[in-house]
Specification:
885 residues, alpha+beta, five-stranded mixed beta sheet, binds S-adenosylmethionine, S-adenosylmethionine-dependent methyltransferase activity, N-methyltransferase activity, SET_dom_sf
């Protein structure tokens, strides 16, 4: 009260006489203020009077009290609150808005109730009143008296203070942007409304306007609307809004924006100052302003050349890059048209996507695909995963991982450590650049049982792009040399070995020593690589901005997207591949970091948490381009009917020379796996496309003269996923099961590992001797060298409980034709392991076999393994035994 000058008070008087009895309130003091501002100040400061025994209330006229009561009975008592001059509903508000100074020179006070006379003249102002009483005074802010019938909708923002109809329109992507992200999946309750002036979204737009003294006239560039413009805007919208208000037509945020769009159209160039929704592009050395400017000029020319709007969508959709604003010649009409086309395009893709979903659902594929169907085993696995994940999160926090809440843990995966080791200083809140921390982190990880569930996956992204570029020979920039790639790969495989070597502390220590060796991959290597990639991409980006992509650019851009996400942000390549259009549309911009954050929900087979990708502005542009132009061009729009799928399967088996009886390798599951590997989620490819991938994955490109130890083999070993074989009844009499080839193998190709428990040879020999005589034990031991022997007696090994280890089931053969496989020890992933290698070309359908290297009577006198004998002597022995027996 002390802050108020005496002349800011109007008349004041005590209403009635004070009652002296204790329980009865003192008579209120009514105070009138000279201006609404003063009244507001007092009202805003009323909380300071808490516990003082003084209360400040707004003194409503009967008319306003009745309106408030009516509103409360319509919308519920709790949903309606009241502030000075304003009645607010919880969902949004019905309110009166004082007009900005230049339009009206006095505040006016009405509700947007239909009974108001909208044609009334301007009201005359009377100052509000305040009431003071003593000794227990009540301060009451009186409602300013309206001396004219209610006038409404005089302020530019008033029309937005309408109720937002609680319709679930979250399926419409353009709508999703306009309403609260919280409503996704839930019953919508709170909606955000877009302010037509600053284009920011607000839960309570009226409050935003109040804060801006009745009109938000500032755009995001910090420029103010001229008074004239604001007035014109208001005038334009007035009639329309008055009508809607009269009819109690409440509109959605999108309608509000369209209204503003209408206004804009009527306004012409003066509204070009409307802010863009997106931030301005940031210049980088590979994405220059000149390029963008050029692209925007080209686009403009193209748009004007194109007469058919459909064609414009096709040819220009790729041109959705943010171009620097050139207000002089970029007409707002053209801009509008473009933005319409863009949203039209997204709508198309959205419809297409949901169509595909429906089709998949119809064929029962969707549930399998999205893992909605949980067998008991799957559910158990998932529960275990979640448990581990929680433990893991706790540990990682202990290890110093401080992920920002704002990014919802975008850097939460172990793989990201590689990045932080290299660029640790940049993201210092993550503190992962010390060797000790990494060691601690990994040991904790091991305690959580995380021994590389996703091992090698992260390496894919790195290697895919780097190898791709280096394989381009003369095209590749000099920065990308093989030595560099090798050093990248060694840094990348650090994690893999790390995860594996968690078993022993000594190995862990050795790995750390090696990885932090200054001669291994350095920060400079990393920078060089990045520079090389950017140099390589420069012409592609130029083509991209000019909409002159050549066919191979699709691959370039796809690979680059993988590179960006996996190399720069440490995610699996599955993240960009599985990113849905909706997820991209729901991206949010984080001012402080100048980053777009996108959350990708299903980024790996068993996604538990969303993966967050933080993209810089130019990167976001490339992503947009990728999603709107490149990815759709790479996929086919439909899934074939089941009958057609069968036909394709048959063709596939014929093409690959697989006998009809062995087609079971091509199960729906393997097809689904291939689809997943392609990485599409919204835009599921056709089976033909799967077929190509399937072939690529399974048929080696090389015909080596020596068994080849490459990434592919390492991956097979680590995952124990062996392709091109199946288990069926053996052709050898009494042999039980055997392994058959389902694809051709080439001479010297590594076919499978004999996988099992590794043990010391001395120990194995002892065990082996104790088992002699038991046919079902002794033949599952395979000696690698003097130190190591594999015990493959267990059906499933401890490290791959869910995998079929084919190697242990391959039968013996030592006759004249010779076996089609031979055993060979190779070092893969740092360990010497026994493999079966093709001795000649093997055709699909052959039973796989190798010489066990043991001969009858080799071990104990009197102990003979019948199956080792030639068929003739076996028969003889059998009949001799029968006669004896
Ligand atoms: C390593 S296992 C091979 C998988 C085995 N067939 C199964 O069904 O589990 C070795 C055992 O297979 C059988 N076996 C392997 N080669 C055989 C052959 N050529 N003839 C008969 N039996 C054979 C013997 O019983 C031998 O002990």
């Amino acid at each position: 009260m002390n802050d108020l000058a005496i002349n800011q008070h109007g008349k004041s008087h005590i209403n009635g006489s004070a009652n002296q009895t204790e329980n009865v309130k003192s008579a209120p003091v009514l105070v009138k203020f000279s201006s609404l501002d003063t009244a507001r100040k007092v009202f805003a400061a009323k909380s300071k009077l808490a516990k003082s025994g003084v209360f400040v209330l707004e003194n409503l006229t009967k008319k306003r009290r009745d309106l408030l009561n009516a509103a409360r009975s319509t919308f519920g008592p709790r949903s309606m609150t009241k502030e000075i001059e304003t009645i607010i509903s919880e969902e949004s508000s019905i309110m009166t808005m004082p007009a900005p100074g230049p339009i009206l020179n006095a505040p006016e006070h009405t509700l947007t109730a239909p009974e108001h006379d909208l044609t009334a003249p301007k009201p005359t102002l009377t100052a509000p009143e305040l009431t003071l009483t003593d000794p227990k005074p009540t301060l009451t802010v009186a409602e300013p008296t309206l001396t004219a019938p209610g006038q409404t909708l005089t302020a530019p923002g008033t029309h937005l203070a309408s109720l937002i109809a609680p319709e679930d329109d979250s399926r419409n992507p353009s709508m999703t942007l306009a309403i609260s992200k919280d409503v996704k999946g839930k019953k919508p309750r709170n909606f955000f409304t877009i302010c037509p002036f600053c284009r920011r979204s607000f839960y309570k737009l009226d409050k935003h306007f109040l804060a801006k003294k009745g009109s938000c006239s500032k755009n995001t560039n910090g420029e103010f609307w001229s008074v004239k413009e604001a007035k014109e805007m208001h005038e334009l919208a007035k009639d329309e809004l008055a009508e809607r208000s009269q009819n109690k037509t409440y509109f959605l945020a999108s309608q509000v924006s369209s209204l503003v769009e209408e206004t804009k159209t009527l306004h012409g160039p003066s509204t070009s100052a409307l802010p863009q929704q997106s931030p301005p592009i940031v210049e980088t050395d590979f994405f220059s302003r000149e390029q963008l400017s050029l692209s925007s000029q080209i686009r403009r020319r193209r748009v004007s050349e194109e007469s058919d709007p459909e064609d414009v969508v096709d040819s220009d959709e790729g041109g959705s890059l943010y171009a620097p604003e050139i207000p002089e010649d970029e007409s707002s009409e053209e801009e509008e048209e473009k933005s319409e086309l863009r949203s039209e395009y997204f709508k198309k893709e959205w419809n297409w996507t949901s169509d595909i979903r429906k089709k998949m659902q119809k064929h029962g594929l969707y549930d399998v695909y999205t893992k909605n169907v949980k067998t008991e085993e799957e559910a158990k696995k998932m529960a275990k995963g979640i448990e581990l994940m929680k433990k893991f999160e706790k540990w990682s926090a202990e290890c110093g991982e401080r992920s920002s809440r704002k990014f919802r843990n975008p850097f939460g995966c172990a793989q990201k450590i590689v990045y932080f080791i290299l660029e640790g200083t940049k993201y210092n809140w993550l503190n992962f650049h010390s060797a000790e921390r990494v060691e601690l982190f990994f040991s904790k990880l091991a305690e959580c049982g995380m021994k590389g569930s996703s091992r090698n996956k992260y390496a894919q992204g790195y290697s895919r792009f780097v190898k791709y570029i280096t394989s381009r020979g003369s095209d590749a920039p000099p920065e990308l040399n093989i030595a560099l790639v090798n050093s990248v790969m060694s840094a990348v495989s650090f994690l893999d070995r790390k995860q594996k070597s968690l078993a022993t502390a000594e190995m862990r220590h050795r790995e750390l020593q090696r990885t932090f060796n200054p001669n291994s991959f350095t920060i400079d290597d990393y920078r060089n690589l990045k520079a090389g990639v950017e140099k390589f991409m420069a012409p592609v980006i130029t083509r991209l901005t000019r909409n002159r992509l050549v066919e191979e650019d699709h691959t370039n851009i796809t690979a680059y997207i993988c590179f960006l996400v996996s190399f720069m942000y440490g995610h699996r390549p599955g993240v960009p591949e599985n990113m849905t259009v909706t997820e991209f549309l729901n991206r949010h911009y984080v001012e402080e970091q100048k980053m777009f954050v996108i959350l990708v929900e299903k980024h790996k087979t068993a996604s538990i948490k969303s993966a967050g990708v933080a993209l810089s502005e130019p990167e976001e542009v490339i992503f947009r381009k990728y999603l709107s132009f490149v990815r759709p061009a790479l996929v086919k729009p439909d899934l074939p009917e089941p009958a057609r799928a069968e036909e394709i399967l048959k063709k596939m088996s014929e093409k690959r020379g697989i006998g009809a009886d062995l087609t079971e390798a091509l199960t729906e599951a393997s097809l689904q796996m291939a689809i997943r590997r392609l990485g599409y989620q919204d835009t599921v490819p056709s089976l033909e496309e799967v077929q190509q991938t399937y072939r690529r994955f399974r048929i080696p490109k090389l015909f080596p003269s020596e068994p080849l130890v490459d990434d592919y083999l390492t991956q097979c070993v680590l995952n124990q996923s062996w392709l091109g074989m199946t288990v069926a009844q053996s052709l050898n009499k009494g042999a039980g099961q055997g392994v058959y080839a389902t694809i051709p193998f080439y001479k010297n190709q590594v076919v499978v590992e004999i996988h099992g428990k590794r043990m010391a040879t001395i120990e194995a020999n002892r065990l082996f001797r104790s088992l002699l005589g038991e046919d079902d034990g002794s033949n599952y031991f395979l000696t690698v060298d003097q130190d190591v022997t594999i015990d493959a007696r267990e059906e499933a090994c401890a490290c791959h409980p869910h995998q079929q280890c084919f190697g242990r089931l391959v039968n013996h053969k030592a006759n004249e034709d010779g076996p089609n496989l031979k055993s060979k020890a190779l070092v893969v992933d740092g360990l010497k392991r026994p493999f079966l290698v093709a001795t000649r070309d093997i055709t699909a359908g052959e039973e796989l076999c190798f010489d066990y290297g043991v001969r009858p009577g080799q071990f104990n006198e009197g102990y003979e393994q019948m199956f080792l004998l030639p068929e003739k002597s076996r028969k003889r022995k059998r009949s001799a035994r029968d006669q004896q027996g």
